[in-house]
Amino acid sequence: MTIRIAVIGTGIMGADHAHIVANDLPKAVLQVVCDASAERARVVADECGALDVSSDPCATIARADVDAVMIASPDNTHAALCLAALELGKPVLCEKPLAPSSSECLQLIEAEVKAGRQFIQLGFMRRFDKSYRDMKDALNQGLLGQALMMHNFHRNISAPANFTGQMAITNSAPHEFDVARFMLDCDYCSISVFQPSCVDTSKTGAPVFMVLETTTGQLVNIEINNNAMYGYDVRSELVGEKGSVFLNAPVSTRLNLGLKAFERYAFDWRPRFAEAYRLQNKAWLKFVETGVMSPIASNAWDGYCASLVAEAGVHSLQTSQKVSLELAAQPALYQRT
Ligand code: ISE
User: Fold this and answer.
1) What span, in angstroms and rounded, lies between the C-alpha atoms of 334 and 337?
2) Span between the terminal Cα atoms of the chain, in Å
3) CA of 100 to the centre of ligand 1 (A)
4) What phi, psi does 328 have (nearest 5°)?
5) How far is the CA of 172 from the centre of ligand 1 (A)?
6) How many CA atoms within 13 Å lie on the side-chain side of 329?
7) Number of H helices, E strands in the chain
């Protein structure tokens, strides 16, 4: 059976998802590409051979010839569009964050609980990345002993014009909030956020440094530096009692010239995580076919956890205080065995 997919939003990630559907998911067809800009929708639809275009997301979701929906529109539209799909019983792959506020995430969770099944897979693609998978395997096999600390660095070349320290926490850091929680199989009990006092923190892209405590006693630190200038660079080291695992980004060559060695950095996250996106989207398609979500995929509950931490992080940034975290009760629908 062919699954007919609509992609909503054709910014960087929506276009990327449309290309993955067209090129890497043989059981799917790109039925509709939808964007507020009809022109932009047409460009992406033509590139990917989509059957139709639209500028109306709710009408697109409701179409009888659409079986499942990928949501990659602006962050503040995610919750309403997820809800529209869920009410029609259509599975969704939603880009992160699930919603800017944890209360909106809880509304989606309530709707899934009421429906008695999950519909939303969230686009935390790093869970499918080979280097993070290997790190998790080393931990699960007991090679490291107990995990103690996880150091994370997330650097982009340059911050978009609207990118404040707050957005570093709500838009960039959720990847680390989610992947460290997944890695350590934990939740967080507090977050403290710092910025270097030697920089003008009102400027876009000023670095943000976070320290989180987990409910199982580990420390997680995260540097977000959206203006790192030199390349897209995501690093992580998991430190255990007996050893550590450091992520290697996929690097195909090293150029040796004039007594120096050069390795290439990606311009942004797409090349670095290309295979993770493909694996994530394949896992989602299987979820659409079978109704069974991949055990490593991120769901609406994981989205809620990430948004709650981001909210607390923004509060910590504003008050310069450590902020404690308390999760709502987890519905049985999301309990993993
Ligand atoms: C962006 O939204 C992403 O999801 C990227 O993975 C991240 O590197 C970037 O900082 C975010 O703004």
Assistant:
1) 10
2) 30
3) 15
4) -70, 170
5) 5
6) 3
7) 11, 16
Q: Which of 246, 244, 247 is nearest to 147 (CA)?
A: 244
Please write the tens of the pLDDT for every residue from 98-141. 999 999 999 999 999 999 999 999 999 999 999 999 999 999 99
Instruction: Give distance in angstroms: CA of 237 to centre of ligand 1.
Output: 20
Which residue's CA is the closest to the ligand 1 atom numbered 3?
172
Q: Tens digit of pLDDT for each residue in 242-285? A: 999 999 988 889 999 999 999 999 999 999 999 999 999 999 99
**Tokens found for residue 92:** 């969704």
Query: For residues 273 and 276, what is the distance between their CA atoms, to the nearest angstrom?
Result: 5
Distance of CA 131 to the CA centre of its chain: 16
HEC-encoded secondary structure of 198-229: CCCCCCCCCCEEEEEEECCCCEEEEEEECCCC
Residues with CB under 6 A from ligand 1: 156, 171-172, 175, 226, 269
In the reported structure, the alpha carbon of residue 259 is separated from the centroid of ligand 1 by a whole-number distance in angstroms of 35
Q: Contact, 155 vs 232, CB < 8 A? A: yes
Asked whether 232 and 238 are in contact (CB, 8 A), the reply is no
Nearest atom (ligand 1) to Cα of 174:
4
- AA identity, residue 46: D
Q: Judging by beta carbons within 10 Å of its beta carbon (0-12, 13-18, 19+), is residue 309 exposed, middle or buried?
A: buried
Residue nearest atom 9 of ligand 1, based on CA coordinates: 172
What is the average pLDDT across 217-222? 98
For the CA of 163, the nearest atom of ligand 1? 12
Nearest-CA residue for ligand 1 atom 1 is: 172
Q: Which of 126, 127, 156 to mutate to test the pocket of ligand 1 (most atoms within 8 A of CB)?
A: 156
The edge-to-edge listing of strands for the beta sheet with 120-122 is 52-54, 28-34, 3-8, 68-71, 92-94, 120-122, 298-299
In 3-state terms, what secondary structure has residue 157?
Answer: coil
User: pTM for this one?
Assistant: 0.97
Task: Specify the long-range contacts of residues 36-44, CB closer than 8 Å, at least 24 apart.
Answer: 36/73, 37/10, 40/10, 41/10, 43/10, 44/7, 44/10, 44/14, 44/15, 44/18
